[in-house]
Amino acid sequence: MDLSILIVNWNTRELLQCCLQSIHDHWSAIDAEIIVVDNHSSDGSAGMVSELFPDVILINNGDNLGFVRANNQAASIAKG
Asked: Does the pTM exceed 0.70?
């Protein structure tokens, strides 16, 4: 794995969807993974990721753990 893209999300479903779509539209030959940590969004963000981007690794938190803890969650499983 050459690259890990870590994204922390909280109630920004539309922006997250645009971000993930842009990554997919411009994907290169790099061996990469995308990890999204959803901090207990109430706008359906996690469901959107699961439905539209099944290749994305999703961590769906039951509480809003904050930006730093969520980033650390993603970094702890990242392979890039």
From this structure: yes
